[in-house]
Backbone:
């Protein structure tokens, strides 16, 4: 069975689902959890790299733009630590051995690297359900992890929008 589960999460609805599933599994199997949050400049909802405006054709940065960018990163890091601390405390309250780590970088490779270094038996990760051109353009962290992880991977499907089938009469 599993002894060490790496839980890749973020502060979204699907991140909450992922945590609930991981906590339920860890409680039932007396498994250790490592909660992992990755801040990525290329993922949705993260720091806007285009906020760094230039004031000449040579690309020198405005001081205010750089300061704004640094403040955004600091706020993201602080929010991530608060989020991870809250979830870790919830796990500990359920008698689950849990710790957390927050990293900055490309989510897919970092998840796989940390899982291997920590010797995880299982990675639990959310899946947004992107397909086709959206998956190609935006990438898929869960797809990367499924194909590159050195251990088992459990994906938790996020809620997908319901589309109505319209038929002509």
Residues:
């Amino acid at each position: 069975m599993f002894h060490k589960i790496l839980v890749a999460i973020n502060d979204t609805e699907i991140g909450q689902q992922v945590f609930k599933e991981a906590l339920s599994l860890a409680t039932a199997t007396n498994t250790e959890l490592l909660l992992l949050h990755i801040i990525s400049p290329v993922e949705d909802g993260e720091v806007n790299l285009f906020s760094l405006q230039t004031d000449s054709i040579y690309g020198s940065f405005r001081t205010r733009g750089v300061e704004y960018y640094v403040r955004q990163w600091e706020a993201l890091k602080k929010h991530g630590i608060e989020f991870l601390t809250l979830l870790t405390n919830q796990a500990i309250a359920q008698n689950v051995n849990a710790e957390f780590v927050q990293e900055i970088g490309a989510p897919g490779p970092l998840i796989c690297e940390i899982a291997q270094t920590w010797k995880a038996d299982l990675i639990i990760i959310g899946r947004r359900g992107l397909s086709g051109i959206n998956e190609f353009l935006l990438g898929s962290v869960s797809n990367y992890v499924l194909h590159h992880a050195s251990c088992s991977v459990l994906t938790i499907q996020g809620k997908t929008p319901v589309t109505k089938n319209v038929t002509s009469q």
